[in-house]
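Postdoc handover notes: sequence design on the structure in folder B. Input tokens:
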């Protein structure tokens, strides 16, 4: 068996670095609850991200900004209880780390202690360097996030592709190198040109996980509700839908409603 096909019984932050070195791609999906996490973990995913996208997917907010630290801990706890193999990474929500490195550490400690998560993820580069360093010095693994950073959506004003211009692209590359240098174990690159993502992946030894960043990175991440087709309004170019559960679930529920109203359910075999 080649090293690139090595099977890992339990994924750790070191596993991911080894996977990049071995040329083995990393699979990553979101999950926010026990039932979904049980399925995702059992299917063999490498990393489960308890994303602040729960603000959109689970709570219906327009942005990721409203979700709180307490809510992230609730979702992360539910996921951790389901997982046997995957590495569980938990987003630090907006407002829990940007202003003060001490606050960033307190938030990270709460996530690790109260949820049992394995690592935290923060959005940004040199602007949050001191917060990341404080968290790392406490022994908590950190995943970075560059490119389109949804917590900064009101600054950007749009969800369009980031780092198309040379100055922003150069800053992103330098930020990636800085995140590696201070000790981050991986970086998510969201919605940036594929050529730039390839350059970043080749410039650092830690894994680069892409979402809308092309194929030449070390792994991919999607929101599980999007790739399963449970959502249908969101149609970015980078999204591949592997199922169309929105239609399937709607049809199943409509059939249940009809069966109840026509007294077809429950039938004789379904009663005691």
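Designed sequence:
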């Amino acid at each position: 068996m080649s090293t690139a096909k090595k099977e890992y019984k339990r994924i750790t932050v070191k596993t991911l670095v080894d996977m990049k070195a071995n040329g083995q791609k990393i699979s990553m999906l979101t999950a926010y609850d026990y039932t979904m996490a049980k399925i995702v973990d059992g299917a063999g995913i490498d990393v489960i991200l308890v994303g602040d996208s729960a603000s959109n997917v689970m709570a219906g907010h327009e942005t990721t900004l409203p979700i709180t630290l307490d809510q992230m801990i609730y979702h992360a706890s539910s996921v951790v209880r389901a997982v046997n193999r995957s590495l569980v990474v938990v987003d630090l929500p907006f407002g829990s780390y940007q202003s003060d490195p001490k606050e960033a550490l307190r938030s990270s400690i709460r996530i690790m202690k109260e949820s049992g998560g394995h690592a935290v993820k923060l959005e940004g580069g040199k602007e949050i360097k001191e917060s990341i360093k404080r968290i790392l010095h406490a022994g908590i693994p950190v995943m970075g996030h560059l490119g389109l950073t949804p917590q900064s959506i009101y600054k950007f004003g749009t969800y369009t592709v980031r780092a198309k211009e040379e100055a922003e692209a150069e800053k992103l590359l330098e930020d990636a190198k800085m995140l590696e240098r201070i000790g981050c174990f991986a970086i998510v690159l969201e919605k940036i040109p594929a050529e730039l993502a390839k350059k970043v992946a080749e410039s650092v030894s830690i894994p680069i996980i892409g979402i809308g960043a092309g194929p030449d990175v070390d792994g991919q991440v999607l929101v599980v509700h999007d790739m399963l087709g449970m959502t249908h309004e969101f149609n970015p170019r980078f999204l591949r839908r592997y199922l169309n559960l929105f239609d399937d679930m709607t049809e199943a529920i409509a059939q249940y409603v009809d069966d109840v109203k026509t007294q077809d359910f429950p039938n004789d075999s379904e009663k005691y």
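Context for whoever picks this up: The chain has a mean pLDDT of 94. Don't rerun without checking with the PI first.
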